[in-house]
Amino acid sequence: MSARARIATGLGALLCVCALSVSAASAEVYRWTDEHGQEHWTGDLSQVPPGKRGEAFDSTQDEEPSRLQLFEGPPSSATRQSARGGVLRIPYEQHGNAILVYARLNDRVDAPFYVDTGAADVVVPAAVAARAGIHVGPGTPRETYATANGLVRQAVVSFDAIEVGEARVENVRGSVSESLPVGLLGTSFFNHFTLQIDPAARMLTLVLNPNMRGGASEGQWRERFRELRHRIARIEDYLDDGTLTSETRLQELTARRDALAEDLDRLETEADRADVPAGWRE
Question: Average of pLDDT values for 203-212?
């Protein structure tokens, strides 16, 4: 699956700031059961029937602080919608200026996510990632991400599948956050679709776009391969020119080259999983 996300200018940056500034207290998910025994979920207390608000509020106090990350859902707002003509309609909840949806990871766990088209990857709280079968260890690659709160180093992982309503994307690149209470659904998911947001109906409309692979365009794939190969070539030039006399420096550069070569191997594997053509890897 692949696509280019079309969004209003500046929306991604706005949602990124909103999502990262939401505190755990303001990101509560309220739960109550109606008279028919149907369980409901919402992040907006005003959506809870007045007679059920005590029960819903109590549900946020009875759990550990990480309950928002670990709920078993899916909530009513994540009910699957029928796809008509390839058009997927996903209901969402409005939290101030932020948009909240519910996603299923690796067919194992449901969790809330803020829509963040300014984030390159899907960002998942560590507890959610663990429940989805993603385990981060000392050997897990890490990258630096720019956030509203500054630069952070986070583990880079791949999810077998992420579903939001009827929208399913496989082999999704993501990162694991040790600090965020709620995940961010970034462009490694949304780049598979064109995206429209209807604030009146509180509905996302997604249409599959076939012009991308693995959430990235041909130009993006080419740039990722080109950058890694360029950096490896530069280090090899230093190692081969014979001007380096420091053994410590030689060891540092050799280790750096080997690490970049491993990054290139991982990128090849990622490209294979996304069926990226050989011409996009040049």
Answer: 82
